[in-house]
Specification:
Strand content: 15-25%
Shape: elongated
Largest sheet: 5 strands, antiparallel
Order of helices and strands: HEEEEEHEEH
Number of helices: 3
Radius of gyration: 23 Å
Helix content: 40-55%
């Protein structure tokens, strides 16, 4: 019995020390990780709205459909609004694809960035490649049409072997275009003289 008590005390001490070490490690790394994530988010916003030099988060709780976006920011250059950066989840083949999509005040896509995905390496994972994402720049009329290569039709050229992923990214961009036009661009047009 005394031996069991001693063994329990040793295990309790080891568990307590391990918990203390993990707690200290968490506290020490928490702030640098948060700064790194904020820097990465700012870099992504600058890539999707290249004209923006200041990004201000928008509270979307009062906007119908705003819950579909994890974050929405207005992009400014000085005092001039130059676009919007929205973070949206789209369904891919392997799971969710987290996208940041920039839309200029002209209603056209100014950039797309893949922030995270669970797609198949070598196939759907190619959705992160600039050559694929560049196809979305300048698109303004949803729904975006996905075409399989080789095709003479206009549209977003599907990644070979990853049509589901391509359609998922296109649907995410469509969702952003619809939302921005409905809630921001039409409102600006109504208030214009």
């Amino acid at each position: 019995m005394i031996r069991s008590f001693r063994l329990g005390a040793v295990l309790l001490t080891i568990t307590g020390l391990t918990g203390l070490i993990l707690g200290v490690a968490y506290k020490v790394t928490e702030e640098p990780i948060a700064r790194s994530q904020a820097r990465q988010k700012m870099e992504a916003m600058r890539r999707v709205v290249p004209l923006g030099d200041d990004f201000r988060r928008i509270d979307t709780s009062s906007l119908p459909g705003g819950e579909a976006f994890s974050e929405i920011s207005e992009a400014f250059r000085g005092d001039l609004r130059v676009g919007y950066a929205l973070t949206v989840r789209a369904k891919g083949y392997g799971g969710d694809i987290l996208l940041m999509v920039g839309v200029g005040t002209d209603g056209a896509v100014s950039g797309v960035q893949v922030l995270g995905h669970q797609e198949t390496p070598g196939l759907g994972a190619r959705a992160s490649e600039p050559v694929f994402l560049e196809q979305f720049r300048g698109q303004a009329l949803p729904p975006l049409k996905v075409v399989k290569p080789p095709s003479q039709e206009e549209g977003i050229e599907a990644i070979t072997g990853a049509t589901i992923t391509t359609r998922g990214v296109a649907r995410g961009v469509d969702k952003v275009l619809d939302f921005v036009k409905k809630h921001f661009l039409e409102r600006e047009g109504e208030s214009a003289p």
